[in-house]
């Protein structure tokens, strides 16, 4: 139970336990360090099981000395990722949970601090709860750190309602005011500052198709890591796999256990200092040191990173020459394998040779070494037996990095021997120490000139997908290459790097590629492939290159460190990957599709309304499919939006245009994709109306499912005869249930009306065709001409067009707008259905206002015989163009704004149909004048006769 939970009966707080430990939890006895898990959109509190179960078994193995207490929040599996109306309630309940967990620890509850692990939107909730106004200080003292897993931190995946936008904006303002970005420091930090909370963000990588890697980092994060770069994980995980991937679960629990410290008798908590926590996070979740291949002048290395680290605290390694074999090999590149292990400790000596370019860089790698300080340097001036040696050596552990492998413990290092010699002039050798073991061990040494191992390539043009070869035959002794990629700055740009082992000489190929993007901190990525003769690695930037970096493009290319298997000859080729580029565009820019679809539909509708000249007596509506396939609207939208966007940026008072963040190639592809969707949907709808109208009626009868069949058919006939009453019923549904439900029902009713109009058109078409055939067969041409004259002098129908097909053409784009509006509000419908047993009406309802506007307009349009033969269609067409451009400029990211764009279009069309003056028909006026003159003449003759 949670105090104050009366307001949130559908939420709950759980503690995890198994077996005999459950009794302690039922008695509310908690002595470990608390960890609170917050699930994401549609997530369950049971998803904590993988993390908590591993931690529980670790606590049992520790004799319950150091352990974690896992708690989990039940948020009713609400889809908070697509519906933001519940985000504030969830944040307030999470605040109550933190306070309740602190009370569970009794007397030490006031000082207890916990870690919050938030998955997906749960990570954003964890960020929001510490930024709550009013109670921020009380909550912050109980939160030691926040870890987000695959969470859209600074930007949401899609803004489908304004509640999401307000929620993110409020959190951004609170963190900006109370949190310093990494590298910054505030002169006067307030007491409620968020700087004392460790904030770690973790992304899943390319396999996470829901939250792509560019959304998982935050400008306020102390550390950002991707699972494919975390030591001992090395894998990309999908959105849900992040919570149960064993490799990642183990690393996360190791990180949390490393911070557990005793707090009183039999009680444990997390270490207090944030710097200590950050050091542990770097150790377990990131690379402790990243060495670089520097081709600059030697003098620039004196103040570089590597010498600076060497000047710090040095760790000395004691050697025992009587138990070791000291071996110096003059070969520059070689590999030693000992499948049966080593009987004695081996110290491999690598000489420092200054002033020789081919002896500048050293790439060394060891497999299954059981010694952490396996790399060191010293001055080997002492002699033991027949070998030179040194009693003490300085550790170079800060240069070593774990290398991905699924079978072995593998470590590597990249050293600039010339820089090392300048910092330590007395040193003569670098030492690789491999202790005695019965396991199979292997180490490889590769000394090279960096100029010979650096390959440069340029990103091909968007239309170039040819396969290029950058290395035809690598030497079997070469184990390392650096590839610099220039011109790659957009997230959709992808290169497929093909590495093929031509000859391996009996060994199985293993390739490790490390991708480093200079402008994306924390996004370094390892890709490793074992026992494969051919490997393809896909290279892409996780985030867009900042505009200010364009001038430095030649200085900061994307860097690939390729580690090859010694003894294999490799060929390296590359090509632009069309498949992965399209996949990246779909993943990151699919949310732009609704805005472009609506913009193209409005421009096509404008073309339909522009079929009639201003002075024509009768109004004509064009066909939607013909208007869509015209190149004019598409070219106008493509050419004009970029110019308008750049022009609007000159005015600071105008909001920032969203289109500037989208590359031009992506915009063109989204345009054509939207056009294809609309054309296919138009053809499908015409086919449904023409061939499936009767079938659709039967489906609607089934959906109505009234107990008496006569009532169902009566209700269907009411749709045709009394559309105003049906519209009023839909408005009532919107007010009492959910606006999205009423919009879906309105789309079904609209389809029935359109199919009925098409049936009337077919009847009239068949009737008129039969009359013409009869006239030609039976020679009744004169009678037909008389009927035609009589028809011309008759008053036009109420819609003043007399063409049912034109009525369908007019209502077809409106029907599409209703469908799009209903689809945009489907998340509200799903949320209403999931929470129906808690409340009949969705509160709050982001779809209510747009639904009411559109339904009121439909009530008028359905009741009137539209389109009417009136003036003002030119102004209406101009408004449609304006709304189309606004949709592309301001509604691509803020998708919820399209609701109001569609509502504005319906409102304008309805007002125009009501108040616009009728067009004047000269023939009708002449007939009316002749009739009036005839009546006047007849009246005068009657007066004369009377006189």
Automatic annotation (TrEMBL):
Keywords: Endoplasmic reticulum, Hydrolase, Membrane, Protein transport, Transmembrane, Transmembrane helix, Transport
Main location: endoplasmic reticulum
Recorded superkingdom: Eukaryota
Transmembrane feature ranges: 660-687, 699-716, 722-753, 805-827, 847-864, 871-890, 896-916
Single Gene Ontology BP annotation: endoplasmic reticulum to Golgi vesicle-mediated transport
Protein's membrane topology: Multi-pass membrane protein
Localization (cell): Endoplasmic reticulum membrane
UniProt KW Transport keyword: yes
Gene Ontology molecular function: any one: phosphatidylinositol deacylase activity
Ranges in coiled-coil conformation: none
Key word Cytoplasm present: no
Residue intervals of the GPI inositol-deacylase transmembrane domain: 707-909
A single Gene Ontology CC term: endoplasmic reticulum membrane
Record's signal peptide: none
Major enzyme class: hydrolase
Region: Disordered, residue numbers: 925-947
Biased composition (Basic and acidic residues): 925-934
Pfam families reported in the protein's UniProt record: PGAP1, PGAP1_3rd, PGAP1_TMD
Every GPI inositol-deacylase PGAP1-like alpha/beta domain range: 30-259
EC number: 3.1.-.-
Entry similarity comment: Belongs to the GPI inositol-deacylase family.
Purpose of the protein: Involved in inositol deacylation of GPI-anchored proteins which plays important roles in the quality control and ER-associated degradation of GPI-anchored proteins.
Name of protein: GPI inositol-deacylase
Organism: Anopheles maculatus
């Amino acid at each position: 139970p949670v105090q104050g939970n009366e307001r949130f009966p559908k939420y709950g707080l759980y503690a995890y336990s198994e077996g005999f430990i459950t009794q302690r939890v039922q008695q509310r006895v908690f002595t470990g360090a608390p960890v609170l898990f917050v699930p994401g959109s549609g997530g369950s509190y049971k998803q904590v099981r993988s993390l908590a179960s591993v931690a529980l078994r670790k606590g049992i193995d520790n004799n319950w000395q150091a352990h974690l207490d896992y708690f989990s929040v039940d948020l009713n599996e609400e889809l908070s990722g697509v519906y933001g109306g519940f985000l504030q309630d969830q944040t307030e309940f999470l605040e109550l949970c933190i306070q309740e967990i602190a009370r569970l620890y009794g007397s030490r509850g006031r000082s207890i601090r916990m870690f919050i692990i938030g998955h997906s939107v749960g990570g954003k909730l964890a960020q929001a709860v510490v930024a709550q106004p009013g109670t921020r200080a009380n909550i912050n003292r109980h939160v030691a750190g926040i870890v987000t897993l695959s969470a859209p931190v600074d930007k949401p995946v899609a803004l489908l309602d304004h509640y999401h936008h307000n929620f993110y904006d409020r959190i951004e303002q609170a963190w900006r005011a109370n949190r310093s970005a990494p590298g910054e420091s505030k002169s006067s930090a307030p007491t409620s500052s968020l700087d004392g909370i460790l904030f770690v963000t973790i992304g899943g990588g390319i396999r996470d198709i829901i939250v792509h890697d560019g959304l998982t980092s935050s400008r306020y994060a102390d550390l950002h890591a991707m699972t494919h770069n975390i030591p001992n994980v090395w894998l990309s995980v999908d959105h849900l796999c992040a919570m149960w991937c064993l490799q990642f679960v183990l690393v996360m629990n190791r990180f949390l256990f490393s911070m557990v410290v005793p707090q009183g008798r039999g009680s444990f908590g997390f270490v207090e200092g944030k710097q200590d926590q950050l050091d542990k996070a770097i150790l377990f979740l990131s690379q402790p040191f990243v060495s670089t291949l520097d081709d600059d002048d030697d003098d620039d290395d004196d103040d570089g990173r590597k010498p600076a680290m060497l000047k710090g605290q040095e760790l000395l390694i004691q050697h025992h020459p009587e138990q070791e074999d000291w071996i110096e090999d003059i070969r520059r590149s070689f590999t030693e394998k000992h499948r049966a292990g080593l009987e004695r400790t081996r110290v491999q000596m690598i000489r420092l040779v200054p002033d020789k370019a081919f002896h500048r860089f050293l790439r060394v790698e060891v497999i299954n070494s059981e010694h952490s300080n396996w790399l060191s340097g010293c001055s080997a001036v002492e002699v033991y037996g027949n070998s030179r040696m040194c009693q003490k050596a300085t550790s170079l552990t800060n240069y070593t990095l774990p290398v991905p492998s699924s079978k072995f413990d593998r470590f590597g290092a990249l050293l600039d021997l010339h820089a090392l010699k300048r910092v330590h002039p007395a040193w003569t050798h670098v030492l690789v120490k491999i202790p005695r073991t019965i396991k199979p061990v292997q180490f490889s040494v590769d000394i090279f000139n960096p100029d010979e191992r650096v390959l440069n390539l340029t990103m091909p043009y968007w239309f170039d997908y040819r396969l290029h070869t950058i290395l035809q035959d690598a030497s079997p002794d070469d184990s390392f290459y650096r590839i610099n990629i220039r011109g790659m700055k957009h997230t959709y740009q992808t290169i497929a790097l093909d590495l093929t082992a031509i000859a391996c000489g009996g060994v199985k190929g293993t390739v490790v590629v490390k991708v480093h993007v200079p402008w994306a901190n924390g996004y370094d990525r390892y890709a490793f492939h074992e026992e494969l003769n051919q490997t393809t690695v896909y290279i892409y930037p996780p985030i867009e290159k900042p505009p200010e970096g364009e001038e430095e493009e030649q200085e900061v290319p994307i860097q690939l460190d390729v580690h090859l298997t010694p003894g294999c000859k490799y060929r390296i080729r590359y090509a632009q990957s069309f498949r992965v580029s399209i996949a990246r565009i779909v993943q990151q820019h699919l949310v732009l599709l609704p805005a472009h679809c609506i913009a193209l539909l409005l421009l096509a509708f404008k073309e339909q309304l522009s079929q009639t000249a201003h002075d024509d007596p009768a109004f004509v509506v064009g066909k939607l499919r013909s208007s869509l396939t015209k190149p004019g609207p598409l070219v106008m939208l493509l050419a004009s939006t970029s110019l308008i966007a750049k022009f609007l940026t000159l005015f600071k008072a105008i909001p920032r245009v969203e289109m500037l963040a989208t590359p031009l190639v992506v915009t063109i592809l989204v345009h054509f994709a939207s056009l294809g969707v609309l054309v296919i949907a138009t053809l499908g709808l015409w086919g449904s109306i023409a061939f499936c109208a009767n079938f659709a009626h039967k489906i609607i009868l089934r959906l109505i499912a009234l107990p008496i069949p006569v009532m169902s058919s009566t209700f269907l006939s009411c749709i045709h005869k009394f559309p105003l009453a049906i519209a009023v019923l839909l408005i009532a549904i919107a007010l009492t249930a959910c606006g999205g439900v009423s919009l879906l029902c309105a789309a079904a009713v609209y389809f029935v009306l359109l199919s009925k109009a098409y049936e009337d058109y077919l009847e009239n078409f068949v009737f008129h065709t039969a009359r013409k055939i009869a006239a030609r067969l039976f020679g009744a041409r004169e009678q037909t001409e008389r009927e035609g004259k009589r028809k011309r002098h008759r008053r036009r129908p109420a819609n003043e067009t007399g063409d049912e097909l034109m009525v369908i053409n007019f209502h077809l784009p409106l029907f599409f707008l209703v469908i799009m509006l209903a689809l945009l509000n489907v998340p509200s419908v799903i949320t209403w259905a999931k929470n129906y047993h808690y409340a009949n009406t969705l509160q709050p309802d982001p779809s209510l206002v747009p639904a009411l506007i559109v339904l009121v307009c439909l009530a008028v349009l359905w009741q009137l015989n539209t389109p009417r033969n009136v003036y003002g269609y030119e102004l209406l067409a101009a408004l449609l163009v304006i709304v189309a451009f606004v949709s592309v400029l301001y509604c691509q990211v803020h998708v919820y704004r399209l609701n109001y764009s569609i509502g504005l279009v319906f409102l304008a069309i309805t007002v125009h149909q009501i108040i616009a003056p009728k067009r004047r028909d000269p023939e009708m006026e002449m007939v009316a004048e002749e009739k009036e003159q005839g009546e006047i003449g007849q009246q005068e003759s009657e007066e004369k006769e009377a006189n």
